[in-house]
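Thread title: Can someone regenerate the structure for this chain?

I was given the following input by a collaborator and told the matching structure tokens would be attached. They weren't. Posting the sequence so someone can regenerate them.
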Amino acid sequence: MKFQTIILTAALVLSGVFSLNAQDRQNPWAIEIGTNAVDFYPVGYDSGTLFPSIGAGRVHGAFINEYFNFGDHYNFMPSASRVSVGRHLFSGLSLNVAGSINKIDKLGDVEFNEWFGADSARYYGLDASLNFSFADALDKSWVIDPYLGFGAGRSWIKYGYAYGFYTMNANVGFKFWVLENRLAINVMSTFKSGLDDTYSQDHFQHSAGLVFQFGGKDTDKDGINDDEDQCPMVPGLKEFNGCPDTDGDGIEDAKDECPEVAGSADFNGCPDSDGDGVEDRKDECPKRKGPMELGGCPDRDKDGVADKDDACPTEAGDPNLGGCPDADGDGVADKDDACPQEGGTVANGGCPEMSIDVIEELNTSTAAILFALGSNELNYEGKAILDEIAQVLKAYPTTSLEIAGHTCNIDTLTFNQGLSEARAKAVRQYLITKQGVSPSRLTAKGYGENEPIADNATAEGRAKNRRVEIRVNE
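Best answer:
Regenerated them for you:
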């Protein structure tokens, strides 16, 4: 027995020293204040040094038999009769030291005062245990936290003289958390097996109490102790181990590429305001939906040119023409094409250019417009020819033309110069007023007798020189 006493005492001392040097965890210290009940009955018939029965009453019954018989078997003090101090060691494991006091007035079915001449005896207990919490080991926040434990202790029963004996203990309990990691209701049942052949007595001790946990340092006051807080200087959230989520998007700032603006996990915490699959910081049109290949900008006419760059956003067109259509395929957008239904040249505003052949044809026609000597009057045949010429001019609506008037050498140079100008103006005016040719396209100029095409020495030559010609303005 002396050897057992030394071993158990040493174990208690070493456990206490170990607890003081254990690794911290959130609120590693705990104090419990509560009550307890002692039951000698459901421990086995031949358990301990007491007789299994006294008189007609049984002190012991079968193991666990009538385990919950509070009224007949429990010795209970309705007051604060148990105090414990606990220290978390490491994942799932904690050390607890408890002291308790009770009044023994029942030994199983036997009333104490019927056989011992006194109302009751005093019970004292001092115990240490290692408890294993499943929730703590799994790092779970359970409202109901079950645990198992084992340990050792010493119990005393004082009846005149205090009889003490060492025990090996096994316990099971549940913590019901009221405030997570801070305040809980603890319910525990401990089986204590006596080790002393002379005075020991097996028994159950049940307890219930309030547990207050404390002792953690929380620099940033976020409710997460520094030893578990990965951002101990900045208030944060438990789900991120104490690190902040400034924008509240469920992505901690350290992993959030846009920590000040709520966003999506798909974009590492950055927003996609228009929901087009292009995050705002890469979206050239963050408020309007558009495809990724266009920088997130819309393309209403589906021509591959974003609306913001499309000069014709509602009409499908050529990307090379700013997204505008080119119906005649001449390389000039319809909106800029003076002849959108006729192929032309860029230099001529999208309209066809008058070729040399056409000009020669026009001049062949105008050569038939002859004037009487000294006259600028158009005859019937001349007007008919101009009507045909007008149709050709309308086919080239952007071509600017010069109408050149000429004379023969009869009369003075001054007279002939004026007469050539009058003839050119007469043709111009006819094309404008009778055929609707734009005035801006036509200029009239007289060359007098300076550019003959035939010999003025003959009547036939002079007749050919009294003419008009059409030239393309450069």
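The first strand starts at residue 29 and ends at 39.
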